[in-house]
Amino acid sequence: MHAIQTEYRRGTKAFVAMQKHANTHGRLLPAAVSSTAAKELTTLFLNTASAPVLGDNSVDLFFDGQKKFAQLFKDIEAAKDHVFVEYYTFYNDELGNQFRDLLIKKAKQGVAVKVLYDAWGSIGANKKFWAPLLATGAKVEAYFSSQHLITDFRLNYRLHRKIVVIDDAIGYIGGFNVGDQYVSRKKKFGFWRDTHLRIRGNTVYALKVQFLMDWNATVPDDQAEPYAIDVAPLSPENLATRHIHLGEAPMQIVASGPDSSAQQIKYGYVKMIASATKSIRLQTPYLIPDDTAMDALITAALAGIDVQVMVPDMPDHPSFSVPRSTTPIT
Question: CA nearest 42: which of 249, 204, 244, 208?
Answer without folding.
Answer: 249
